[in-house]
Amino acid sequence: MNTRILLVEDDERLAELTAEYLTKNDLQVSIEPRGDTAETRILAEQPDLVILDVMLPGKDGFEVCRAVRQQYRGVILMLTARDEDFDQILGLEMGADDYIAKPVQPRVLLARIKALLRRRPATSESSSDESETMVFGQFRISQSTRTASLGGTTIDLTTAEFDLLWLLASHAGNVLSRDDLLQELRGIGFDGLDRSIDARISRLRKKLNDDPENPTRIKTVRGKGYLFSKHDWN
Questions:
Q1: Which strand (E) or helix (H) includes residue 87?
Q2: Cα 209 from chain centre
Q3: How many contiguous H segments (helices) and E segments (strands) does the chain have?
Q4: Of 22, 26, 146, 189, which is least packed with CB atoms within 10 Å of its CB?
Q5: CA 112 vs CA 127, 164, 185, 227, 228: distances in Å
Q6: Within 13 Å of residue 95, how many CA atoms lie on the same side as its CB?
């Protein structure tokens, strides 16, 4: 039980049942019922993953996510209302790594948690392996250290943002559809409604100083998907 999870959920019965299920699957789970105290605990305890409900007393999940994102380097999985696109997109814009709609089956939640944890940075003696680093002009991204920089300045990325950026850069010069991206990153196909990729692309463009009105670094290819440029990084 080395993986520590903080479950931020004010429904006591639901929280207990969820924690019990996850604990049986070798995860160490703590429960926090309030948003305002959750913020303090996340920063102090630095759990590996936070399951963060939107509707909380004290502070809502969006406020908590935004408040801790800069100092918390773990994974944030938000629980949102079913079919509420606004909740899902806002959560991603606040820095969440992923979202899942309530109510959620425990086994589905466990699968999503495991998928997110697999993408965490791994400590390895080969972390300086240049074969896991790509350079485009002044942009540099390393898979082994899970860091990216532009003009020598480190870019602050969430887990999900890094994964998307690495995937795009790995296919530089080629168009990747939303379905390609979702299949690779979340193991699901594009249903025509999911806006998570669009939201992350928008955040990445801001962090990469790409013109949102006429992007040249991560381009939108109408009707097809997104293309990471091999050029325009000087």
A1: helix 85-93
A2: 20
A3: 8, 12
A4: 26
A5: 26, 16, 11, 27, 27
A6: 20
Q: What is the dihedral of CA 148, 122, 163, 105, to 10 degrees?
A: -150
CA proximity to 32, closest of 44, 224, 87, 222: 44
Q: What digits encode the pLDDT tens for the residues 175-184?
A: 999 888 888 8
Over residues 174-225, the pLDDT tens digits come to 999 988 888 888 765 555 556 778 888 998 999 999 998 899 999 999 889 9
- Residue whose entry in the numeric block shows the structure tokens 């959620």: 104
- Residues β-bridged to residue 220: 226
Segment 119-146 shows an average pLDDT of 71
C-alpha triplet 70, 86, 207: angle, nearest 5°: 35
Eight-state DSSP code of residue 131: G
> Is the Cβ–Cβ distance between 146 and 97 less than 8 Å?
no
So what's the pLDDT on residue 90? 73
Rounded-to-integer distance, Cα 60 and Cα 90, Å? 12
- Cis peptide preceding 103, ω within 30 of 0: yes
Average pLDDT, the chain: 86
